[in-house]
Amino acid sequence: MSVYTPLSPTQLAKVLEQFGFQLRDYHAASHGIENSTFLIDGLGKHDQPCPLVLTVFESLDHPALTPYLTLLKQLAKQHLPVPAPLATASGNDQITVAGKPAVLMPRLPGRHDFSVDADRCRQVGALLARLHASHTEQLQPLPSERARLRDFTHHLDKLPTADRDNAARLLHRWLAHPAGTTLIHGDLFRDNLLWDNGEISALLDFYNACQDHPEYDLAVALNDWCVDARGHVVAEREHALLSAYRGQGRSVDTRRLNEALPVAALRFWLSRLAGPVSDHSEGQGSKNPEEFARIYRQRLEAFAV
After folding, report:
1. Distance of alpha carbon 71 from alpha carbon 67, whole angstroms
2. Are strands 193-196 and 182-184 parallel, antiparallel or unpaired?
3. Is 186 exposed, middle or buried (0-12, 13-18, 19+ CB in 10 A)?
4. Which of 186, 252, 174 is nearest to 221 (CA)?
5. I want to staple 67 with a disulfide (CB 3.0 to 4.6 A). Which of 26, 140, 174, 289 is the partner?
6. What range does the domain containing 20 cover?
7. What is the tens place of the pLDDT at every residue in 115-160?
8. How many independent structural domains does the chain possess?
9. Are residues 36 and 80 in the same domain?
């Protein structure tokens, strides 16, 4: 992910000391746009190598971060491939770094790989099915995606004039529906998975997670994994993802999915238009809004047919 809060080796070494690790090496991660993330090679007891990830949060405060960390712990206990936060010697899973909340986690095996094919889409569909079937009885309240969408309505004036009315109607219609109660990731883009020998090894970045309809989560994934550079649907990939999802015993409301597809595309178009957290960052920074403008228009046209 991009780095908005640079840290020196001395600062990182002091962070690791709180968890009983020593700093061996590190570098700033380059994927994502919201937080500052450092990939760390640490040393544990008896100089045991310990790959770690430090995330410094640029917009969430400590209380807002708490339910997400609780969620990660619960999902890790259910054997989903997610990193659970580590605790300091005093038992804290949150610390403050450069005046901002921060979390240290184990770095799960694998690497980012942005190639995509039908087999990878099948794996994504199966993983989403597992996530949507997870037990959430002990969840702390998570922010609502509906609230985020309402916030994004304030950015509709950033759209081209010809798109504004249809976009406003689409959001109004979607927000009029009651929210679902399924745990969803909300951001399953290719940069939020790690791969090891062609298999998913880690699902990352749960900071858009919430409870809503599973079709919305499917729509977010389909809009990234199953379209080409022009925003057109790649039918083979879409079929693979949805078939694998259904193959895990999950059902899909086709009508709701067809509506969720342009809504999810519009959401990420608007979020990209809203801009990065900072104008000065190391790494990726903000993503191109036009990518989701193309996807949105394709999805809206198909929904309107």
Report:
1. 6
2. unpaired
3. buried
4. 186
5. 140
6. 9-106
7. 999 999 999 999 999 999 999 877 888 999 999 999 999 999 999 9
8. 2
9. yes
